[in-house]
Design a protein that fits this description.
It is a single chain. This protein is mostly beta strands and about 600 residues long. The protein has a single domain, classed as Beta Barrel (Maltoporin, Chain A), CATH 2.40.170. About 5% of the residues lie in helices and about 55% in strands. The protein contains five helices and 33 strands. It has a 22-stranded antiparallel beta barrel. The chain has a five-stranded mixed β-sheet with strand order 3-8-9-6-7. A hairpin with a 2-residue loop joins strand 27 and strand 28. The radius of gyration is 23 Å and the shape is globular.
Length: about 600
C-alpha cells in the first residue's frame, strides 16, 4: 500500500512539472567533481566504477543532523542504527559485513582492528564536510584490506563561507543538540574548528546518550608548500538496551572514544604528483553489562594505529600511472582480547590506458599487502569503461578482495560468544557491469554485480541454546542489481530534484540456518528509496523521503521522513520529522527503532 502511495505522489510531481517550463537546471555538476580517494584523480563522469557523491549543497538541503542518516538515503548502503542521531550504527555496502566496508577521512584509512562496530564512531559532523564519496564494489586494489565490498571517503572543507555558525536543535525524547563552527583566513594559512554536543533522555529505557565531537583543520604555508593538519576527537556515552547480547540485556552501557591526528602535503610538477601523509588513530571502548554494577561484567579495549603513506601519480604519453606505499602498525590493549600488535605494509600500482580516441579506458592494478600475522596477499583488479556518447558510458570491473579477521573475531569470549584463533582470512572474486547517463536534467545509473566469497567470517551456533562461535563459511555467493536516478526540473524558477534508488540482493545462505547466524542473514534483499527535494518559495525548501526495506530474514518495513528549511538571510529554521507514520521496525539485532519524532532547529551564521 505504501509503495502505491509513493507511485501516486511521484506521478503528481511529474504532472506538476509537466505544466511548468522545463529548463536545464544550473547545478554544481558532478562531472566537475574530482574523486580524490584514489591515486589517479579522475572527474566523477570519467570514473569506471559505481560511485555516489553527496555534495555539501545536498547535505545542507537535506536537514540531516548526522552522516548515518545521510547514508541511509543511498541505495546499496545499509546503515543499521540503534536509536537516534546516529549514536550507534553499523555500516554495510551491498550485503557485506560491518567489517568489510572501509571508512576514510580525507583519504586516511579509519579501519579498527578491534571491530568494525566502531567504524561510524569516527564520522565527522556534517558542518565540516565538503562531500562524501561512496565507492561500491571491490576496492582492495585501491585501498587494501577492509575495502571488501566498498569504501566511503569523507572529504572535509578547506574553508568556510562564514566566520561563525551556531546551530541549536531540540525535539522529541529530550533531544538537545548544539554546535559552533568557526573559520578564519589568514595571510598564509587558514583554520576551521567545530565543537558539538548531542544529548537525549532516550525513547525507551536505558537509551539515553551524551555525545561530544571536536574537530580542527588547519592549512599552513599556503603560499609556498601547503601543509594540511587535521585533528578529531569524538566521545560517546550511551545506554545500550539490547544492543549486543540479547533482548533481555536491558542494562548494557557503553562509552567509546575515537580520535585522529594527521598531516599531509602535496608536491606537484607538470607530470608528477606525490602526497606523503602521516597519521595516528586511537580508539577506546568501555562496555559494561549492567550499567549500575560494572563489576558483573566489563570490557575495556584501547587501540592505536600509527601510519605513514605516500601516494603518487605520473602522467606520460602512455597514460597515468598511480603507485603508493602504506606502512602502519596497530596495537590493542584489552582485558578480554589481550595485548597484541600487528604490522601492515601495502604496496599499490595501477595504470590507466586510453584507447580509440579516448573512448575506451582500461585501468589494471594490484595491491600487495604484508601482515605480520597473516603474511603476504595480493589483490589484483581491473576497471574498463567505454564512452558511448558525451553523456552515456558503459563500464565494468572485477577484482580480488580480502579481509583478515579482527581481534574480536579471533579472541573475543563471553557467556554467549566464542572467538576462534584458527580463523582463515576472507577472500572474494567480484564482478560488475553497468551504465551511467548524465545530463543537466537527468543522472541515472544501473549496475549488475556478483561476488563469490570463500571463508566468510560469521558467528554461528549449532542450535538455539549453544554459544555463537566465530566460523569460516566455505562458500558464499551474493549477486544483485542496483538502479539510481536523479531528475532535475524547475517550478516557478525554483530547482526541484526527484531521486529514486533501488537495490536487490540475493545470497545463497541456506534457509535452515537462519536462526543460527548472527550477521549473515540480515542483509537487505529489497531496498527502495525515493526523495523529493523541492523549493516552492524563495526562502523555503522541503524534503520528503520514503524508504522501503525487506531483509533476507523476511521482515520488511516502510518509513517516511520529511524536513522543512526556512531561510532568512543569515538565519535558518529547520523542522525534521522522522518515522512520520510511526512504523514499528528493527534495523539490527533486538533494538526497536524510535517511534515518530520531530526535531526543531535554527542556525545563525555571521
Amino acid at each position: 500500500m505504501k509503495i502505491k502511495i509513493t507511485v501516486i505522489i511521484a506521478l503528481l510531481f511529474y504532472a506538476v512539472q509537466a505544466k511548468a517550463q522545463v529548463e536545464p537546471v544550473k547545478r554544481d555538476t558532478l562531472k566537475e567533481v574530482i574523486i580524490t580517494s584514489t591515486r589517479i584523480d579522475l572527474p566523477f563522469k570519467k570514473n569506471s566504477r559505481t560511485i555516489n557523491v553527496i555534495s555539501s549543497e545536498e547535505i545542507k538541503n537535506s536537514a540531516a543532523t548526522n552522516v548515518a542518516d545521510l547514508l541511509q538515503q543511498v541505495a546499496g548502503v545499509d546503515i543499521r542504527r540503534r536509536g537516534t542521531a546516529g549514536s550507534q550504527a553499523d555500516l554495510y555496502i551491498r550485503g557485506g559485513g560491518f567489517d568489510q566496508t572501509l571508512l576514510l577521512i580525507d583519504g586516511i584509512k579509519m579501519d579498527d582492528s578491534q571491530t568494525g562496530h566502531h567504524t561510524l564512531n569516527a564520522v565527522l559532523p556534517v558542518e565540516v564536510i565538503e562531500r562524501i564519496e561512496v565507492i561500491k564494489g571491490p576496492a582492495a586494489r585501491v585501498f587494501g584490506q577492509n575495502a571488501f565490498t566498498g569504501a566511503i571517503n569523507i572529504v572535509t572543507k578547506n574553508k568556510l563561507n562564514n566566520l561563525v555558525s551556531v546551530n541549536v536543535e531540540a525535539g522529541s525524547f529530550g533531544q538537545l543538540n548544539g554546535s559552533v563552527t568557526i573559520g578564519k583566513e589568514f595571510e598564509n594559512s587558514s583554520v576551521m574548528a567545530h565543537v558539538g554536543i548531542l544529548t537525549s533522555d532516550g525513547y525507551r529505557h536505558n537509551s539515553d546518550y551524551n555525545n561530544k565531537n571536536y574537530f580542527i583543520k588547519g592549512i599552513f604555508n599556503k603560499k609556498e608548500q601547503p601543509i594540511e593538519v587535521i585533528a578529531t576527537f569524538f566521545d560517546k556515552k550511551f545506554g545500550a538496551n539490547g544492543f549486543y547480547a540479547s533482548a533481555t540485556a536491558t542494562e548494557q552501557y557503553e562509552e567509546t572514544q575515537s580520535s585522529l591526528l594527521g598531516a599531509s602535503t602535496t608536491f606537484k610538477t607538470e607530470n608528477f604528483k606525490i602526497t606523503p601523509r602521516v597519521y595516528w588513530k586511537r580508539g577506546q571502548d568501555d562496555y559494561v553489562y549492567i550499567r549500575d554494577n560494572p563489576s558483573v561484567y566489563r570490557n575495556l579495549h584501547i587501540t592505536n594505529k600509527i601510519g605513514v603513506e605516500t601516494n603518487a601519480s605520473y602522467t606520460s604519453n602512455l597514460g597515468i600511472t598511480g603507485f603508493g606505499i602504506d606502512i602502519s602498525r596497530v596495537f590493542i590493549s584489552s582485558n578480554n582480547l589481550g595485548n597484541r600488535n600487528r604490522t601492515m605494509v601495502n604496496l599499490f600500482l595501477e595504470h590507466r590506458f586510453k584507447l580509440a580516441d579516448d573512448k575506451i579506458d582500461i585501468t589494471p592494478g594490484v595491491a600487495v599487502t604484508y601482515f605480520s600475522d597473516f603474511k603476504f596477499h595480493a589483490f589484483p583488479g581491473i576497471d574498463v569503461g567505454f564512452k558511448l556518447s558525451d553523456n552515456l558510458k558503459a563500464y565494468g570491473n572485477l577484482g580480488i578482495t580480502y579481509r583478515i579477521p579482527t581481534y574480536t573475531d579471533l579472541f573475543y569470549n563471553d557467556r554467549t560468544t566464542i572467538g576462534n584463533e584458527n580463523l582463515k582470512s576472507e577472500e572474494a572474486f567480484s564482478q560488475e557491469i553497468g551504465l551511467k547517463y548524465d545530463t543537466e536534467i537527468l543522472t541515472t545509473s544501473v549496475a549488475f554485480f556478483n561476488r563469490d566469497a570463500d571463508n566468510l567470517i560469521d558467528f554461528i551456533r549449532s542450535d538455539l541454546t549453544s554459544k555463537y562461535a566465530a566460523t569460516n563459511i566455505p562458500k558464499f555467493n551474493t549477486k544483485g542489481f542496483e538502479f539510481n536516478a536523479d531528475y532535475r526540473f524547475k517550478i516557478n524558477e525554483f530547482n526541484q530534484t526527484l531521486s529514486f534508488g533501488y537495490n536487490f540482493l540475493d545470497d545463497n545462505f541456506t534457509e535452515e540456518k537462519k536462526e543460527f547466524s548472527r550477521y549473515s542473514l540480515s542483509t537487505l534483499k529489497h531496498q527502495f528509496i525515493t526523495r523529493f527535494a523541492s523549493k516552492l518559495f524563495k526562502n523555503v525548501r522541503q524534503n520528503i523521503i520514503y524508504k522501503y526495506a525487506e531483509r533476507t530474514v523476511g521482515t520488511s518495513y516502510n518509513v517516511w521522513d520529511a524536513s522543512v528549511i526556512v531561510d532568512f538571510n543569515q538565519l535558518s529554521f529547520t523542522v525534521t520529522a522522522s518515522n512520520i507514520f510511526d512504523a514499528d521496525y528493527i534495523e539490527t539485532g533486538y533494538v526497536p527503532m524510535p517511534p515518530s519524532n520531530v526535531l526543531f532547529g535554527f542556525r545563525y551564521s555571521f
